[in-house]
Design goal:
Helix content is 16%, strand content 37%. With 128 residues, the chain is an alpha+beta fold. It has a domain at 44-128: Immunoglobulin-like (Sandwich). The termini are far apart. Bound molecules: copper (II) ion. Copper (II) ion (CU) binds at residues 79, 110, 112-114, 118, 121.
């Protein structure tokens, strides 16, 4: 019950942020840079950051058959990621640990209708 309320309140707060942060205007550079960067790859993690309207890399690589963690963060605006064919669905910020046995290329896309260039928010997960 409580969790549902928290989710609802978060959703409303995020919507408000979305309207202010993703309204098409250029936002000032992120001044909140005191935060420590998310743990860099310890070999089994990838950090994906989304801003208006791109990801921080075009290609992310992981190893087939090994567990890895996706750390996702919206650094500007409100974005999310889904990965075609994989069970990944993160919005705003979050992590997901998974294992992909099948090598190949998987399309990463933004799963939040985030603004005019939403459709350009595409990257690739390469599983080797
Ligand atoms: Cu989007």
């Amino acid at each position: 019950m409580n969790k549902k309320w928290t989710l609802l309140v978060s959703a409303v707060a995020f919507s408000a942020m979305l309207m202010t942060a993703c309204g098409g205007k250029e936002q000032a550079a992120n001044t909140n840079s005191t935060e420590a960067p998310a743990a860099a790859t310890d070999g089994n993690g990838i950090n994906i950051e989304a801003s208006n309207w791109k990801f921080n890399q075009d290609v992310y690589e992981v190893k087939a058959g090994e567990e890895f963690t996706i750390n996702f963060k919206s650094t500007e605006g409100f974005h999310g990621i889904g990965i075609e064919g994989l069970d990944v669905d993160i919005q705003k910020d979050g992590s997901k640990t998974l294992k992909v046995d099948k090598a190949g290329e998987y399309k990463i896309f933004c799963n939040v209708i985030c603004g005019p260039e939403h459709g350009n928010m595409i990257a690739k997960l390469v599983v080797k």
